[in-house]
Amino acid sequence: MADTSVRPQASDAEPTHEVAPSDAPRIDIPLVTDKLLGTWGDIRRTAREMLKDSAFWRIDGQTHHEHRERVYSQLGLLVQHNAIGRAFPVEYGGENNNGGNLASFEELVLADPSLQIKAGVQWGLFTSAIYQLGTKKHWDKWLKAAIELEIPGAFAMTETGHGSDVAAIGTTATYAPETEEFVIHTPFRGAWKDYLGNAAVHGTAATVFAQLITGGVNYGVHCFFVPIRDENGEFLPGVGGEDDGVKGGLNGIDNGRLHFTEVRVPRENLLNRYGDVAADGTYSSPIASPGRRFFTMLGALVQGRVSLDGAATTASALALNIAVTYGNQRRQFAGASGAETVLLDYGKHQRRLIPRLATTYAQTFAHDELLRKFDAVFGGTNDTEESREDLETLAAALKSLSTWHALDTVQEAREACGGSGFLAENRLVGLRSDLDVYVTFEGDNNVLLQLVGKRLLGDYAKQFKGKDSKEIAAFVVGQTAGKVFHGAGLRQLGQAVADLGQVARSVELGLRAKDQHELLTDRVQQMVADVAGRLRAATKLSPDAAAALFNENQVELLEAARAHAELLQWEAFTDAVASVEDAGTKQVLGWLRDLFGLGLLEKHLSWYLMHGRLSNQRAIAVGRYIDRLCLRLRPHAQDLVDAFGFAPEHVRAPIASGAEKERQDEAAAYYADLAASGTAPAKEKKPSTR
Amino acid sequence: MADTSVRPQASDAEPTHEVAPSDAPRIDIPLVTDKLLGTWGDIRRTAREMLKDSAFWRIDGQTHHEHRERVYSQLGLLVQHNAIGRAFPVEYGGENNNGGNLASFEELVLADPSLQIKAGVQWGLFTSAIYQLGTKKHWDKWLKAAIELEIPGAFAMTETGHGSDVAAIGTTATYAPETEEFVIHTPFRGAWKDYLGNAAVHGTAATVFAQLITGGVNYGVHCFFVPIRDENGEFLPGVGGEDDGVKGGLNGIDNGRLHFTEVRVPRENLLNRYGDVAADGTYSSPIASPGRRFFTMLGALVQGRVSLDGAATTASALALNIAVTYGNQRRQFAGASGAETVLLDYGKHQRRLIPRLATTYAQTFAHDELLRKFDAVFGGTNDTEESREDLETLAAALKSLSTWHALDTVQEAREACGGSGFLAENRLVGLRSDLDVYVTFEGDNNVLLQLVGKRLLGDYAKQFKGKDSKEIAAFVVGQTAGKVFHGAGLRQLGQAVADLGQVARSVELGLRAKDQHELLTDRVQQMVADVAGRLRAATKLSPDAAAALFNENQVELLEAARAHAELLQWEAFTDAVASVEDAGTKQVLGWLRDLFGLGLLEKHLSWYLMHGRLSNQRAIAVGRYIDRLCLRLRPHAQDLVDAFGFAPEHVRAPIASGAEKERQDEAAAYYADLAASGTAPAKEKKPSTR
């Protein structure tokens, strides 16, 4: 049924008044599409072409059992299309193309987020664990089979009792030198593995994370390859589990629980890249520090977070494409002329959709930066301890903001489409349900922001190394107005964003690009400095009191991390605008970037006022300028969502197919004919008195 | 399966440290439960008792077809329990108890929101249309059958092309005097009736809204009783339709589309309380003004909005009960002592849940006020044109805020429960999906807020009646700092809230109750005055320019309406606190009210700063005070959610059943035993160099 809603988008539709006057700047849509598709645009186009096949699309109304089987069979189609192995080495059928692999993977969200995430479980987590945490013997044994879906696998990290705090998981893997085996064991109910894709039905093996114990010492969390089901789909001896059942979304994935009762696997099943156990039980690792070893192993799996940032942004773009297209056709309530007003001509409707479009653009450009960093680290062109740490921080920061933004945007789009938005056929509610869990999996967003915040504090503290307390005090006081600190080393002041202020020709009371940049940067610096200043007392306190002090500042630290991520998005957007040659495109994207920047200022306006960064007059100008920018961008809204480059087969929502315009035209023609025929009923006369 | 998750809540659980010190004030939980259940508490308790039967509960994972049949059969159970007819007259089996009827109806959300809304379609819309818009002949013919579900019916108002703008619907009902019939007709696709519960499968009749045309004159929208299906469930001649299919939630309801091709119904099928057509085609109405007649008919159906306010608030309470209970048991990351920290001890977790609890309390008390107004109007104890208008405004204001709050709160609760929150068994994702459409049905929230805003402007303008423009100008200037206007006449300054300031003993830099009240009131007044001032120019403009001017001010008008609703909620909360005798309860609820008030100030802090209502110093104090209130209320969080009075059969979420505490205890005991046994693996030694 789904394909009945795919109709060609009316490219030859009569222009309605959402079109800008002919002398106004316009964006060059194909050029902007190229920009948005980014570094791996060709691969994204290939993926989108593949996804035009309805075999990949979600069917609404299936039971979760039917949906699971459909998605599982779709994984097979992906293998047939060679769509999933790009990240792996050539000798195992891959292309060693890390950025391209994720770019392609992210696009799957257009077909069905369940397909994206089930593919992510199989290849981004299970197969990647074998590749990233294992060594050649593991690759030779399992990699090709995992890539080709001969071994469907679960990634058994999370436990019922421990999600965010992976280091504290309860599952043990105790080495038994007499048989050269590891004994995988679940000691209590809270240590059951939980929420694992592929665990309830399809998985025949799992990469199981457990505390590695040998010679009476716990060497911390390591990963083991553990077969879990036989060829008939029955659990192997010692393995048990449960189905997690129906979820809030992503019901095409068979999430489930696993537990192990003294399950023995050969010593070789330890994925031993970062830690190994010799036959006699001796432990060795190339990374001496247990903490650094743990974070290195986790960091090897950062691609999940990276790809969620991209997929969430693509989902936001799709939702806005649907809502803006509908908002440009749907009419409600007669306007001054008697004709009904197009929704997107309402001030409130513009305020609901256009700023979210600006944020989605910012995220798209920021994501391409993230993907390039990821590719450089994993492709080896810039793989240092520092670049890995930067990548992890950036991924944590951007993933948090973009996944929350997706929920917010898809929901606003759904509400902006009214009752139509609530029908499954129009896609928005499905996207909303499926994307929901993106904000808490692969790292709970609040936990990720805390990680970013701590990194900011660490970078801040580095500036004081070797200084005595008096110097530090002077520094802390002095830097309030200064620019000595930028944040997480992701972009130093030296490498400031290109071409500031060239774009924004509409000068507004100190709210031009360079002012936006200064205000956003300043806020990050000040917030980090403020938290750091308050936390300095912690060193002199008891552990309990120090923890309480940190806790008191937790909300603000997370807010600082968010501010930092927003700044990075703004900078990426600004760089993208600067790289545009076409004057009309540059102009319009400049407005959109201004809208994003001003939106951030408005969101945090009370902070800017309380900290004396904006006068009342400038603060009042922020809201007014946003209103004007929305109005100025309104004629470009359709162009800007068309530039995402989705084909009708990707959009698939009947309300964005042109059907609404047909209905409006039919109704208007009916009333016009009626009037012309002279048979229209008269209007009731108003009574002379009330 | 659902009932396996129902376990007695651990009332005898050991106190953990969420319990306040013994000398601190505590709330009297049963007393607060009585307060929260409100005026019709006894009826709410009866409904909740009935809903302990698992026959009423939602089963996750059903197809929408199965779910629809289950809910339909549940409607039959409601009839058997005499749970649905209270609002109707005694002679038709009712009790003429309007407030009690809605109170009982709202509680259904605890069993399954689909059950609530399907019951709402049958009795709150379809049957109520017969009762409120019809006359004795209709009651005698159809009322008892509709009440007893012998006639399942659809409420056919909304069309594909017109939701918010009901006056513009396209369906026509043309009187044919020769046969004394109305011809119901759908002239074009956009005029199909759409999103109608009971239309896809179960409905055998519909109350159809159509433009009444007689003698060549259109008398506007009226309602007609139209049979649509025969005893075999087949559409009657001329009637057609479609299934709306799967939706984002509420899939226990068979929403569908209907269209009519010259369907003839007897003249008597016009529900003629507010407008009638004589046999010869002469139109008559007790309300001469077409506009007022239209709004009177619509206003007769206001109970939908009233009940959504209550149901959304109950759903928020349930979500907070689940998340706070879990947050008080779940531990993650080791704290200073080495033991893992309870989630609700984290500053951010407190900030996520406790302010939303404060808002939910405010809404609960405000809803009881709304319900009493509703009961007075519909029960006839205070049924005037003005009281009806007040009721409609208040319902629009409160429904908008509380339905949005429900989505926000349920989502925050779901995220606060992490991956567990995403499992259907834990209720939150189901509530979120089902409640989604509450924000756009029975009046799109933005459209409702605009209605409230226009009412505020109207009330404001009344003050200038008879004044000349010079006086008005002086007035507008003068009132900035004054208090001449309160807003929508819902509560005059004379009837100020009781007992201000007695409660808040913790004096904070001018942020006590009376300051909160002044600041909140002042903001409503100022915003309305500002918008009104800018709109005054409209009278001198062309229609187009006037519309553009209004459009420019739309966002701010909606914001003023929201501010007004927030003030009303604050006042209701304050009155409720004032009515409490018990000192400990009064103290704690006073803090919670302060948290609600301060939360509103924080949300609008930039406005207060820009308009000179708060100094920087006071503004900074707002956030700090909120932090302290969260910390102070943290030991009361469990009491406050327990006070909602839900039984395990209402909560049903395994994570809020005590199971998490059992798991935590088991894990802690395991590690304690291991340590005691002397067989615990040693910790890996840290390397001496990095």
Automatic annotation (TrEMBL), chains A, B:
Subcellular localization(s) per the UniProt record: Peroxisome
GO biological process, one term: lipid homeostasis
Domain Acyl-CoA oxidase C-terminal, chain residue ranges per copy: 518-656
Residue span, Acyl-CoA dehydrogenase/oxidase N-terminal domain: 43-148
Enzyme class: oxidoreductase
Keyword list, A-Z: FAD, Fatty acid metabolism, Flavoprotein, Lipid metabolism, Oxidoreductase, Peroxisome
Protein family membership: Belongs to the acyl-CoA oxidase family.
Descriptive protein name: acyl-CoA oxidase
